[in-house]
Amino acid sequence: MKTNRILKGDALKELQKLPSGVAQTIIADPPYFNVLEDEAWDTQWKTAADYLAWCDAWVAESMRILRDDGLAFIFGQLGKREHTFLHLMSRLSQQHQFHDLIIWDRAVGYDERRDSFTPQYEMILVLRKGDDVKFNKDTVRIPYDAATIEAYMRDNRYKDKTARRAHLEKGKYATNIIRVPSLKGNSKEKCGHPSQKPINLIDKLIACSTDVGDLVLDPFLGSGTTAASAQRLQRLWLGIERDSNYIKIAKKRLAPPSKSSIKNRKS
Predict the structure, then answer these.
(1) Which of 40, 139, 159, 241 is placed for a possible disulfide with 207 were both Cys, Cβ 3.0 to 4.6 Å?
(2) Are 96 and 163 in a shared domain?
(3) Any idea what the CATH number is for the domain that residue 50 is in?
(4) Are strands 215-218 and 121-128 parallel, antiparallel or unpaired?
(5) Do 184 and 232 share a domain, yes or no?
(6) Both 45 and 168 in a single domain?
């Protein structure tokens, strides 16, 4: 199977063409359903039931393609009054094995509301296929600053100071609340997709669930963030996208830098 390429077409149809058990990790950021109300791709279903049935189908195909020790990360968020993702999480967790629920703390709020708290997070439902999964917590440690390390080193409960310092210098294990600032309009990373995810966030998901050379699949590639992350982490990748404009953006991001741009960076 040829990898490191974008498959143009409908996600469900393209997923049905792929062999079983080949992807180590799936990163899926599908339409939310009536959350981004100005986007045709987010308002294409007449009812929530139609949307949920579509999700049942593409997730089932994705889980078929997933390796037995793999993980599937599925993004979702709630609208002002739209709460379909809550039903979707419950539904998928009954059909497949639940592994975790990650809260992506976007660091800043968005979509100010008059009568409720300002939302500042999105959710990532994590599904597993088998009982044993590939997961490396060391890849997503959070560094301690020097002052914190020295404060912890004064704890007399630890007799082996060398081992204690080595442990602290690795950093603390990340929780399932991941704080990565969202992309604003003036961000250099922003490239034209209304729900583009920061590459540093995707890096964490790929790094903890794959090894170098593993295959990462994104059924809704959009502007190509998953592919860009996989590429720089030396993973194989496959992306599916039906929008020609987004494919053009993704290919531009994934193209090797030109000789002139490298020369300008060095000068």
Answers:
(1) 139
(2) no
(3) 3.40.50.150
(4) unpaired
(5) yes
(6) no
Domain end residue (candidates: 150, 174, 198): 174
Backbone angles phi, psi at 220, to 5 degrees: -135, 75
pLDDT tens readout for residues 103-134: 999 998 777 777 888 889 999 999 999 999 99
User: 142 lies in which domain range?
Assistant: 137-174
Burial pattern 80-103, b for ≥16 Cβ within 10 A else e, equals eebebbeebbeebeeebeebeebe
- Provide, rounded to the nearest whole percent, the portion of the chain with pLDDT above 70: 96
pLDDT tens for residues 160-197?
999 999 999 999 999 999 999 998 777 888 887 878 89
| One-letter identity of residue 246 | Y
Q: Is the dihedral of CA 183, 142, 227, 63 positive or negative?
A: negative
DSSP-assigned beta bridge partners for residue 240: 7
Report yes or no: 126 and 71 within 8 Å, Cβ to Cβ.
yes
Q: Output the pTM of the full model.
A: 0.90
